[in-house]
């Protein structure tokens, strides 16, 4: 017994105020030691003393607050999201229908009858029924959230909403039974309208979150469902992965995914371990070498002894790293939240003081208490103080920025990215697949006593039957250079070292310099070039014909065409670029030098990448991480902003806040510029909203603001924020092309990596 950690995927969170309410509720729960809430990923991580709290009690706190706990299974979770969306739509249709009826009644009273007062008892009762139906029908769940928050001493948007809706209800009832001059219909209308607005805002938020979830692919399951287990008798049986235990032996054929972590006990092969290292060049594996589940066995058959299963397996460890980093990701205090923290209790206090003032103050100058004016003042304060425009300020800027980003092939999954980006001062970039293309390619051909075409022709002929990725690079380059080559008459591959072939009457060797030297080949005339090519981080293949070194082929991971320009754009923006990679230091430094990156972290494992990001954050830096592989996923989640290359793995995309469709690195700085501009729009929206809310609340305290005018002012504040967010796009005739985000931008790019067309 002791400290237990539970993580939940939570439904019903619509804004950062919800996340803050959950944190406050748990912080006031006896036995809870720590809690982290991720609004972007809708997750809650709770650490608690299991001697004082049970898992059921921990879950009940969330449920009592009005939130749902989704199934950990992704397929079932998706079904729950769809059910939540359907419930939200149903609530909106019911509340929206009531609002339309009330609006028609109000319009008829004002335009046809020319009066604000209620026209008849029947109309009063109809609007009362609509108010009660809206508040306790589709709006019932809001009351549950407000009540559970209020009893815990938490003042949030739900509490303020219900204060306004109940004030409207009470005002209408006073007009119906106590003060005939009260505009009963309009008081009831307030209850209907603000409840409907809140349902609309939550439904919109749910749509955005659900659509964002659909826009990225689900986590890639790299492990096969079954494995070939070798029994003690030597028989082979196909069994589910879950039936494997440590010590079992499995056989893996060429081209298959390795099902489990283990050690090679028989056979030789090259294995693509990019799942773990991110590096594109396969590693030679033979007896005694460790292999990782999810890696691809390329050339030979391997017999592997299982060393880890279940939660101890590599892929599950990465998944756990992602979950922990995601839930414990450093949070931000939104600008709107800083305001609303004081705004909500402030509005409630002003509303109460307004009633008290108009009831008590007149007595001081010998007049009668003005209850009606006090009621008008309180209701108008609550209506004008309801932070609808404030609540929309950030989402509208996000929608505008998200549309602009989509037109550049950038999917902004998290609103946090817009707010954090202006403060980012370090961008950490993975090497393979991010700065580089991610596939081996021929970078240079060196010839001795012949020409480059002869070297390439000889090498391509020898490698024609090879399945190694380096052989593919040589053959692809030969095809690009229109070099004609023949199939070998005889061929033999030495795993991890090279090939030997008979081409016509020639005996040809193509392979690593060390292997060639071991075969008695004199490499002295190529020693300087070998050292030079290796110094550039290239893999060197020597080409030997009939015992004579014919030439060298340098193979490496090609740097993206816009990488250097993008790094310079980062520097121009005052951001420090950092490269992090699992590759060796020599190769890493060679790539970093070519793109002008000064700080390099090499030989870094997946969990270490996350730790390096954490160290930068602990030093006070705001950090964005750019990557594309499974090995990058924990670091992407840990970073303040995770940016995934869309051509990368599903798990990297799922872990990121921003997804670049395609592999253009320049999108990183595009996203930074869009995020900075969107944050500027957010601040403008907040100023606009406060101009209405602040002045409106002050005016409402006089008790002279009619509920109808209060509602109109609220509508105007929202309209002003809307106009500020989208005026530029509307005037320019540009719309939001989110469909573009699903395909790669291949045209309109300049050499500096910028996009020239929207």
UniProtKB/TrEMBL annotation:
| GO molecular function terms listed in the Swiss-Prot or TrEMBL record | ATP binding; ATP hydrolysis activity; copper ion binding; P-type divalent copper transporter activity
Which stretches does the entry tag as region Disordered? 271-292
Can you tell me where the transmembrane regions are?
92-113, 119-138, 159-179, 185-208, 342-368, 374-399, 686-705, 711-731
Principal location listed in the UniProt entry: membrane
The organism named in the record is Halonotius terrestris
This chain's protein is named Cation-translocating P-type ATPase
Among the GO biological process terms of this entry, one is: copper ion homeostasis
Q: Which family does it belong to?
A: Belongs to the cation transport ATPase (P-type) (TC 3.A.3) family. Type IB subfamily.
UniProt xrefs under CDD domains: HMA
